[in-house]
Structure formats: structure tokens, C-alpha cells
């Protein structure tokens, strides 16, 4: 493990998803301690996207932005909102120059699949219809997220393709949760890794799926056909249960004719980019912004 990251391990709180209310409180406290970049020259606005129910979003508008990303927070489908994602959404808008639409999708277990996917699809449709109001080219709308949010982003790309919905130009997938089966080498061997353990991951999938059978829109790794999907940037952490399912998904995208940039970050663990003092974390966060900037400029 990267020594700068390893030094923080004794400070990491033990966490699980047995009690979602407590888990959400702990995440909110952690997020409040993360510094936010200078966004004084950026317009930030909270809105409710019309849906059933309405979906809260926080929109970050850098000057002269030409593209946008529907951005989805992590948290195992159980934790997180636009407030806990504020440091990261603001950082992405600042580093990429893109409009970032951070989505407060409904959380499990109170709202299991497909509630979150429906919320995100509603925001995607709304964004495509209102792109001109943001000064955004409707051909330059991306989707992306961290962890569980990245999994939802991959799923909404599948749904938009299948339903001939709004065109998505790019997927920015950071350590996505893609496969509920947990049968890969990393899922079977990284059972007690920092932040994301096998038990915590199993709980997250259980909360998200509820009583519904897993489908490709819930677990995109189950999709048989990946042709026709948007180009993707996939980032993985070395000591992460999700690592191998993410690499496999990236390879399958390539084999389906999709252009992919795959970055496996050595010495890192799931979510370790939140340790901003580490040099590798600084590179990870900068690369997410740079990858989005490149994609939307193309």
C-alpha cells in the first residue's frame, strides 16, 4: 500500500451498513471535514428536477462551460446526498471546466432499485431538454460517479441505449460497483480491506436490490451486450473488492468496440482518494477532471 495512505489507516473509523441512519450520519461528519476548492467564480444552484418524486440536484456552472456531466455520489446506494458530495462535485467542476449536475438520488433500503436509477434517468432527460439554458451543447452530456454512483452511471448508459433515450457522450466511472455476485478474485480475497469490506459490500447490495432479482440495470456486469455504449474512463483501486469486476467490464467494453481508458491505481484502496494530502490521491482527483475535460472537448 502507498505509505502516505497507510499512515491514515489507524484513523479510519470502523463502519458498516447495519444501521443506515448511523452510517449516513457518520458519512456526513466525514464529508464536512473535507476542504472544498475555491469556487468563488462559479455559479452554484440547488434545484428540484420534476419527476415522481422530484429529484434534488446541485448544479455547478464554471464560466464558459461547453459540456456537462450528471454526477452521482458514492455511499453504497445507502448513504450520501448533494451535501456530502459537495467537496467532490465542486472539485470536479473546477478541474474539468464542465457543468456538474450532482444528483441527490433516493437511497436504499427505504427506496430500493430501481428508484435511484429512475431518478438519475429523469435528471439525464431533463438535462438534455434544458442544456441550452446552461449554455451546454446537448451532444456533450456525460454521466459519471464514484463507487455505487459510478455503477448507477453505467446502468443509466445501458438504459439510455436500450430505450433510445438522451445521447450520452462519455462515462466517467471511478471504482464502480457493477457486480452483485462478488465472484471475482479481488472480491473473494479483499475481504477486510480499508473502508470497503466484503460484509459491507454484501450489505450494500442487499439494501439496494431488496427483493428484486439482479438485472443489468441494477448490476451492469450482468449485461450480455455492451455494444453501442459511450466511451468510458474506468478507474480502479488496487486493494478494492470491486477492482477485478471493473477491469473485466472495461475489457468487455473494449471487446464490444467501445473506446476505453482504464487506469488501475497501485497502492490505493476504495475511496482512498479522499485522503487529499497523499500525492497519489492528488493525481487521482486531477486525472478525473482531466479525463472529463478531454472527453467533452472532443
Automatic annotation (TrEMBL):
It comes from the Bacteria. The keyword Cytoplasm does not apply. It holds the Pfam family Abhydrolase_3. Keywords: Hydrolase. The keyword Electron transport does not apply. InterPro entries: AB_hydrolase_3, AB_hydrolase_fold, GDXG_lipolytic_enzyme. Residues 69-272 form the Alpha/beta hydrolase fold-3 domain. One of its GO terms (molecular function) is hydrolase activity. This is Alpha/beta hydrolase.
